[in-house]
Amino acid sequence: MKITRDKVVYSMSADNVPVFRIVLPARLTFETHDCFCGQVKSPADTVATLDFSRVNPATGPVYLEDVRPGDVLAVHISAIRVASPGIMVAAPGAGVLGEAVAEPETMMAEISNGFVHLLGLALPAAPMIGVIGVAPAGEAIPCGTPGPHGGNMDTGLITAGSTVYLPVQVDGALLAMGDLHALMGDGEIMVSGVEVAGEVDVTVTKAAGVQLDNPLVVTPDWIAVIASALTLDEAVQTATFQMAGLLQKWTGFSLNAAGMFLSACGHVQVSQVVDPLKTARMAIPRTILKKLGVPLAF
């Protein structure tokens, strides 16, 4: 089933009207806008010309039958197809370098044959999903803000071949996604990656016997807890505590042992530092977890 890009939301909310009601397991295709919702068509279209009420649309949401608060949703990403061109922007006051940016600027990047053509370079494309999440139980959260519900996590590990596990907060979950990138460095320091429209093929199931407070992503190489907070320090602490708790459950380690294991084998990685909340992850190589007999999928 395809969810087309004419069906979008700009916030994750329990009040959003679902575009479809789906029985799990389900194979779905989400057709997405770029994060500017098609407003940028040439370098002349800078952030100064944008209608910011139409930024960061997420396609959906989809109501998933028999999914309840406390459940965990497993979203396996089988393919991401990105359109051309890609878009990048610079904006005064925005991003890590924002205080030094004097004038807004937009750059267009052709994407062809698996490469992003940017600044005279042909860079291998690495398509990923910036916004993927479910509705929060409380107040609506703009799609541009990450949190325990997912949202704008801008995490490079969320790509084809990965499975994102999302803790469900409302009946039906109300799954939505968007904000694809053809290429994005960890941090997304200039506020945008190579922003693109596209399509995402996913298989959605309910993860039996799993409890999570924050999103988890499993890739062919990593298992990582993703957390967002006002500061990177807080995000790192949340992700680390959650991963330590999972290790204790998976292995029987004490808290001290889990902490020492993470200090030796865990990797603090930055997802993004430019959203209203900052996002970090605690990641462990799957090869090491396999030696401990840890489940590599749920």
Task: Please give the CATH architecture of the largest domain.
Answer: Sandwich
Through-space gap between termini: 24 Å
Widest sheet: strand ordering? 1-5-18-7-15-19-20-22-21
**Looking at this structure, what is the CATH superfamily of the largest domain?**
Acetamidase/Formamidase-like domains
What do the pLDDT scores average to? Answer: 97
Report the order of strands and helices.
Answer: EEEEEEEEEEEEEEEEEEEEHHEEH
Parts with pLDDT < 50 across at least 5 consecutive residues? none
Describe this structure in words.
With 298 residues, the chain is mainly beta. It has 2 domains: 2-206, Sandwich (Jelly Rolls); 216-291, Endonuclease I-creI, CATH 3.10.28. 12% of the residues lie in helices and 39% in strands. It contains 3 helices and 22 strands. It has helices at 232-251, 255-265, 286-291; strands at 2-3, 8-9, 11-12, 20-22, 26-32, 58-64, 72-82, 86-90, 105-112, 115-118, 121-124, 128-133, 141-142, 150-152, 163-167, 175-183, 194-196, 198-206, 216-218, 222-229, 267-272, 278-285. A hairpin with a 3-residue loop joins β19 (216-218) and β20 (222-229). α1 packs across α2. The longest helix is centred in the C-terminal third of the chain and has 20 residues, at 232-251. The protein is globular. The two termini are 24 Å apart. The model has no long low-confidence stretch (mean pLDDT 97).
